[in-house]
Fold each of these.
Amino acid sequence: MPAFDSGNTTTNGVYQADELCRWFSFVEIQSATNNFDDTLVIGKGGFGKVYKGFIDGGATTVAIKRSNAESKQGAAEFWTEIKTLSKLRHTHLVTLIGYSDDCEEMILVYERGSEDERLLVLVLHRLLVLVLHRLLV
């Protein structure tokens, strides 16, 4: 993981960054997921599908969460998740690498851990997002 800016803080092992994460164009997301190829789907939920993707010329494997039109997650939750998770880094949280709001999409890009830790981390992550959303809204 790259070094954090000097303006960031650490409290109880949780890093808090001052800036939002990386922005991706829709074309970059399409390329990373081979145009949202169904063979790369690694999860589904009320929000839409999660794809295994490859960024930075294939050097980094990521999980890409693409909201669908029927999703109960709206723009407020999308931006809360970006703003909150862009600031936090912890070994027990999935790291938000970036997002795309290009072409009226709501797409989040996360680091991809091992298969063994994926379920636990996603459950903990979703719980944190729900709690933070209630606290911040």
Amino acid sequence: MSDRDELTVLPGEEAVRRRIHMYFGVGRGDPRLPTMVFGEVVKQAFHPGRDSAAAHVSRVVAEITADLVFTVTDDQADTLPPGHDLPLFTGHPLMDRRLRRGVYLDASTICTHVDVEVWRDGRGFRLTLDGYRPIAPPEPFTAPAGAGTRATFFLDEAFTGRAAITLDPMLLDLHYPDCGERPDGVVLRDLRG
């Protein structure tokens, strides 16, 4: 039997759940996992990708609200194609190109759920996800001023163990290797009492 015969192709969510180390650098139950997930999501928010937004989002606020819960808010809802109207949930359970792939989606697979909101031009919609799937249709909400995206991740203790998110600077590298700029537009807050 060859190595090829032993390979198993897994669907998206299952691939992340069974091979967490490939996505976040540490494995299931590792006490660093919550911090690594937090850091990768913040990095993705600040660097959404060339096809989604500018090289750097101008403002990202990341708040730790409980040991395994964090919220990332940015000032970008303009990752949608020009002229695209709200609601932003058409064609996919997530709201924009930035949230449809990458770290946001990977992180959602090891959460009990993720609450996502997006707003622009005085209109806002929210959606709760279970993994990649919405648990209900999007609902409108009273939008704050400007434009933005907010995602609150509720990490699942079944994957993270009893570890907690930290602001350990050794684990929170917010830039990609070729990025020479400092993350001045990133605000990290620990709101736990």
Amino acid sequence: MRKQAPAERRLRRIKSVAALIMFGCIVISVFGTVHGMVRSFNAIALGGSAPIEADLAESIQWSMTLTRILMPATFIAAIVWVGSWYKLRTPLTIGIRSGRLAADDSGHQHKQQNDG
């Protein structure tokens, strides 16, 4: 197993945290929506034949507010995740184009010395 550079470890940690935030926000949003639906159905059941509109509106508003708060955090975490994924995938390509090699890529460096 190759030794990771500190910057690569930091990017992998950022990528993991961003994925955890995305997952958590999505799960909490879905849970909030389901909880709001349960509250709405409960208001319908308790309201008899004519449900109270205020109770329905409150339940729906609560679930939508939770989703509205968490969706921007999900999008920001997704952008950070994609950016760190892209950065982790491209260092060798950037290094070859600029004529420099990464310090932890000794196998490729040895091959290049033998070719030249």
Amino acid sequence: MSVASTRSSAIPWIFVACFSVVFAVNGTMIWLAVSSFSGLYGNGARDREYHYNQVIAEQRERDALGWKINTSWRVDDNRLQIDITQADGSALPGATINAQLVRPAEKQQPVPLALVEVTDGRFSGHVDLPKRGNWDLDLLVVAKGHDFAITKRLFLK
């Protein structure tokens, strides 16, 4: 058996081996992509899709309230402050809030916030962050018989 015939008979097996490596890597990458992040921010995305006109109407109702949410983060003492104002710029009296911080790119439990009302429409509290960086503030404000839900992206240093 000559060297040329041995080399030519091994070439198809080299192709098979190379493609097997490519398929194994692709299969691993597909498995990691499917098993790691669902792509859904929260539960009920499908229900929101089916009732989209209702979602739009609720958003227009919230927009008509004219409430504004302003946040500030104090790095020195890890304090988050939330100011809620009405359409005329005055503080929103009698509001209660439910707030939590969610990492937008990671699957982990939300960080609940214990914020106290300092004055009308101003809430403040200390936050122990497990990590610094981008967070979504999920906020539900209840006042004057209305529920006002908003998500704000914050970069907390």
